[in-house]
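BUG: 3D viewer hangs when loading the predicted structure for this chain

Environment: internal workstation, default settings.
Expected: structure renders.
Actual: progress bar stalls at 90%.

Input used:
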Amino acid sequence: MSALTTTPIARFDYRLRIAAALLRAAPRAEHLLVGGMALASAAAAWPFAGALYPAVAIPALLALAALIRHHLDGLDARRDALTAAGADPADTLVIQVAGPLGATCAGTVLGIGASVAVGRPPAHALLPLAVGLVAALLIRRAWLGAPALATGSVVALVTAALVRVSSSASTAAPLAEARSRSGAVVHLPQATASAWSAAWPTALAAVLALAATQLVIARRQQLRGLARALTAAAMRRMIARSGA
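Structure tokens produced before the viewer hung:
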């Protein structure tokens, strides 16, 4: 191999070795954080059937993005140390994202293996990898932070559970009535909710919660000023009423 080929490969390998050494020396909380990324990625890549897949995948993908952003947003001191040690921006970027993307790839591989094992197409298992790349390389703290992503994940999980419960309740009564009339097991077309009917309420609720949380975070100073102004106005009105 030529020097032009070996030099970038050797430099990339050196960056990965530094990232692995920093991760091994990191506190247990960071290890748990990276493990959570792998679990969220595996949950989003797992070949769940029918309407169960969006109910699990949407909250898991948002949780994965939240964990990655929380991890990267907390590496300011490490970035400064790497810069002081002479690392260029490309070195720093690779060292920072190696752990999150490695954990995401591990979960993706598990999902692909499970899809192949059950005989289903593994294309959906690449979604966690795409979300991990976007969260690590494109999203910035000022645009979309970890608290907003985490809120979206929790709201998506709650909404998915409510949708699943309501869909089960709405199909249980017609199914029981059909069984009582025929005396046999009857499969109704509406007994199993489609993936789309389960996905769109979950995704919509997550996006609305995410956007509202990020807006509150971005405008918190203005909201605090408004709250103080309203409190002061209420106090003045109470004083005026008591004086009258």
